[in-house]
């Protein structure tokens, strides 16, 4: 099987659409050959993870494309950047970093991408539709778009997402094609009480476990007795995309391609069946915590970016209370959600509590935290998963309520009642 | 003594170095320090090892989309692995290498090997990676 390009693809490759499209098409065509695609296909939307400043090379790549006159040809949203453009001075972000990260933001905006600056683009008005062919970067967003919405994207790496947006084309392969979206491993919840399933803390833990077991296979989760809320599914997808390579998770009776077990497996049989038990979940929850003591420097919420619904849940927990003076309290979100939360009256209680909001970015993608911050607590499995490596910090995983109570107490406090044997 | 493993060159280039092998996938974002080449995923079996300049063999990449960007930065800083060997056809490593070729003229070899060949690789073996994807493994040089 060899790659056949359309007339338009060839025109891009020979430079008829300008040098930026030529470079982007050269990269897309080589990737198509690597993954064994026999043709390229159109996309009608893109989400770009590449705008995240990672160092001089990512900046040079962005500015090379921008200098060559690159323009996106499909509606394109932007993932988190490397700096809170207007708020970085309140934190430890070095000015040199902020300057370069901002240049990278400018480069991508100059290509015509929409400055959403969020890792939860599926909670904006640019949310894709069922069946829509898209090229998305950002592991949690890829998993949510495929699983919860039923849009179709491969796991696009940084630097390829923008090439897809510039050319409007991707290799016709992987999760873009129906036959590759069938479930492969059945994960059956066994004796997991409904009370646990209704709890927000359950979903990041379940996601962490699913990702670990599935690795790069497509899991089908059966046995949920309730239909989880959007933010619960968001937490599950983000966790599974961190602990594994999950890009598509079918949940029977919940996600759109899994009305039944048979439809999730496209009438095929599972290659493997795994039981998800409370013992397995308890072990997964334990793995998300690396700290051993009770000391705490920072409580951080919002990976993926906090939604309006999450702000609304948080605000009453903070009302009339104040954080311990030794524990910082931070929510990471998008400009849009922070604005909506402000209009809904949710930011005032956060401010009175002594908390802060950072937008555009997150603690993992910008050097905003001082090195004195050694132990952090979060309700996000993604923050819990990546903080030890990226921030050289210890981490405690807990529920939203645990996080607030710990911030007030000045030490780690966790309610174990859901998890007791 | 040497034996040849016939791999598929996802990105063809030449390298020769000592192997660093793990049977667990790795996300470079949060897992690889681009400034030092150290593996920093504290849950990974290679945590603390320096992969810069070595033939890094992993089943695949994992997790974050930013793995590509981290590998590109590592190439620019001369702290990338000399080559990467995987079982899966790994988009992320391949793309980083292609872009490293576009930007800096320095693609690193990315080779996919058969699932039955991968478990024969051992840390410490000296491996020569050929542009056609063949791996020449010096079996007498195990340390």
Name some characteristics of this structure.
heterodimer; A: 421 residues; alpha/beta; Aconitase, domain 3; 3 domains; five-stranded parallel sheet; four-stranded parallel sheet; 16 helices; 14 strands; 39% helix; 14% strand; B: eight-stranded mixed sheet; 2 helices
Structure description:
The complex is a heterodimer of chains A (421) and B (143). By secondary structure, chain A is of the alpha/beta class. Chain A has three domains: 7-179, Aconitase, domain 3 (2-Layer Sandwich), CATH 3.30.499; 182-287; 298-409, Aconitase, domain 3. Chain A is built from 16 helices and 14 strands. In chain A, the strands form four sheets. Chain A has a five-stranded parallel beta sheet, with helices on both faces. Chain A has a four-stranded parallel beta sheet with strand order 8-7-6-9. In chain A, helix 3 links the parallel strand 2 (46-48) and strand 3 (76-78). In chain A, helix 1 crosses helix 2, helix 2 crosses helix 6 (160-167) and helix 12 crosses helix 14 (347-353). The longest helix of chain A has 16 residues, at 19-34. Chain A is globular, with a radius of gyration of 22 Å. The mean pLDDT of chain A is 97. With 143 residues, chain B is α/β, with parallel strands linked by helices. Chain B has a single domain, classed as Glucose Oxidase, domain 1. Chain B is built from two helices and eight strands. Chain B has helices spanning 67-76, 91-104, and strands at 2-6, 8-11, 15-21, 55-57, 83-86, 110-112, 126-129, 134-138. Chain A binds chain B through residues 23, 26-27, 30-31, 34-36, 49-50, 52, 54-58, 60-61, 64, 137-139, 142, 154-161, 215-216, 241-245, 287, 290, 364, 385-386, 388-390, and chain B through 10-11, 25, 27, 29-31, 34, 40-43, 60-70, 72-73, 75-77, 88-89, 91-92, 94-96, 98-99, 102-104.
Strand order of the largest sheet of chain A: 12-11-10-13-14
Number of helices of chain B: 2
Order of helices and strands of chain B: EEEEHEHEEE
Give me the secondary-structure category of chain A.
alpha/beta
What is the C-level CATH assignment of the largest domain in chain A? Alpha Beta
Return the average pLDDT of chain B rounded to an integer: 94
CATH top-level class of chain B = Alpha Beta
Largest interface, C-beta closer than 8 angstroms, per-chain residues: A-B, 46 and 40 residues
CATH topology description of the largest domain in chain A: Aconitase, domain 3
What is the number of domains of chain A? 3
Q: Quick one: biggest sheet of chain A?
A: 5 strands, parallel
Share of residues in helices of chain A: 25-40%
**CATH topology type of chain B:** Glucose Oxidase, domain 1
Going by CATH, the architecture of chain B would be: 3-Layer(bba) Sandwich
């Amino acid at each position: 099987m060899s790659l056949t390009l359309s007339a338009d693809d060839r025109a891009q490759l020979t430079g008829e659409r300008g040098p930026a499209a030529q470079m982007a098409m050269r990269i897309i065509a080589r990737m198509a050959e690597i993954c064994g695609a026999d043709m390229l296909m159109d996309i009608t939307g893109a989400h770009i993870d590449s705008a995240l400043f990672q160092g001089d090379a990512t900046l040079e790549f962005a500015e090379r494309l921008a200098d060559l006159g690159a323009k996106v040809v499909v509606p394109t949203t932007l993932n988190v950047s490397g700096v809170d453009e207007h708020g970085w001075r309140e934190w430890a972000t070095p000015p040199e970093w902020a300057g370069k990260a901002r240049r990278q933001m400018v480069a991508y905006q100059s290509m015509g991408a929409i400055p959403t600056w969020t890792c939860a683009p599926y909670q904006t008005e640019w949310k894709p539709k069922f069946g829509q062919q898209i090229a998305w970067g950002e592991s949690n967003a890829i998993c949510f778009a495929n699983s919860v919405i039923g849009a179709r994207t491969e796991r696009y790496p940084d630097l390829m997402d923008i090439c897809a947006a510039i050319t409007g084309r991707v290799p016709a392969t992987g999760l873009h094609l129906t036959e590759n979206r069938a479930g492969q491993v059945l994960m059956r919840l066994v004796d997991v009480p409904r009370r646990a399933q209704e709890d927000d803390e359950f979903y990041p833990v379940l996601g962490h476990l699913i990702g670990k077991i599935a690795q790069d296979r497509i899991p089908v989760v059966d046995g949920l007795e309730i239909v989880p809320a959007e933010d619960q599914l968001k937490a599950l997808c983000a966790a599974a995309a961190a602990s594994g390579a999950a890009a598509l998770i079918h949940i029977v009776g919940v996600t759109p391609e899994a009305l039944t077990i048979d439809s999730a497996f496209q009438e095929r049989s599972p290659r493997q069946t795994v039981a998800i038990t409370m013992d397995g979940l308890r072990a997964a929850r334990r793995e998300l915590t690396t700290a051993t003591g009770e000391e705490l420097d920072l409580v951080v919420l919002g990976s993926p970016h906090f939604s309006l619904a999450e702000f609304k849940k948080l605000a009453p927990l903070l009302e009339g209370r104040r954080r311990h003076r030794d524990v910082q309290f931070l929510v990471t979100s998008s400009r849009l959600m922070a604005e909506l939360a402000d209009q809904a009256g949710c930011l005032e209680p956060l401010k009175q509590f002594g908390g802060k909001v950072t937008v555009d970015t997150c603690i993992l993608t910008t050097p905003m935290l001082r090195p004195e911050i050694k132990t952090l607590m979060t309700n996000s499995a993604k923050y819990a998963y990546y903080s030890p490596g990226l921030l050289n910090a210890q981490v405690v995983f807990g529920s939203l309520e645990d996080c607030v109570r710990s911030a007030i107490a000045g030490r780690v406090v966790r309610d174990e009642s859901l998890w007791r044997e | 003594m040497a034996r040849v493993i016939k791999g598929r060159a996802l990105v063809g280039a030449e390298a020769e170095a000592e192997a660093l092998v793990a049977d667990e996938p790795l996300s470079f974002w949060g897992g690889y320090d681009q400034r030092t080449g150290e593996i920093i995923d504290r849950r990974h079996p290679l945590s603390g090892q320096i992969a810069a300049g070595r033939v890094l063999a992993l089943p695949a990449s994992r997790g974050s989309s930013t793995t590509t960007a981290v590998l590109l930065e590592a190439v620019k800083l001369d702290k990338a692995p000399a080559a990467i060997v995987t079982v899966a056809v790994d988009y992320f490593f391949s793309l980083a290498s292609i872009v490293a070729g576009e930007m800096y003229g320095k693609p690193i070899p990315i080779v996919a090997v058969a699932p039955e060949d991968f478990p024969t690789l051992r840390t410490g073996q000296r491996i020569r990676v050929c542009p056609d994807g063949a791996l020449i493994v010096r079996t007498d040089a195990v340390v």
